[in-house]
Amino acid sequence: MVNIGDMPIILHIMKSYANYGINDFIVASGYKTEVIEKFFSSNKFSFSVTVVNTGLSATTGERVKIILNSLNDNQFFLTYGDGLSNINFNKLLKFHNQHGKLATVSAVRPPARFGGLDLNGEFVEKFTEKDSLSEAWINGGFFVINKDVIKYIINNDFFENEALPNLARNKELLAYKHTGFWKPMDTLRDKTELENIYYNGSPPWLSKTS
User: Fold this and answer.
1) SS3 label, residue 201
2) Which terminus of the chain, N or C, has less C-beta within 10 A?
3) β partners of residue 142
């Protein structure tokens, strides 16, 4: 519920999905459930939001498991709710369906946070600007998963510690490489940078990409 500009990040995320016609959302809540429920019950949106209290101490694996048990649909999108991206969700879903596996994770290259030093032995020769992106691929936090993923949540551990490694071992986890905009909100610095992008107009995560 932390704001980016004039609305909480969760609403930014929902609007980015809604750009692609995805209009039904389930929020697996725990901490401050009553605040989340009040926000969505007190405001009108062009999409449907259901808040499910999955417990204050539940792991991400437990939260996903609870939601999976209550769904009839065979597949759905999943995200952590702490990052923004201009991923084309239609293309992400098409990629997932073309490969016939149980789960697809968005793979992104994180923004580099620091500049570098060019060294000659113990001497600094020059400072280098930070690269816009690092070379490593990381979990971008936007998934498509099939309901059978529930079989991989055995010990109710964190989703990224149990289900994802188990899926990977069984060759059931694919990576959709996204090279466009992606940014997490892990720190106050991240929040400030996202707000600057938002207030400068046309934030990329609120625009539909082709």
Assistant:
1) coil
2) C
3) 79
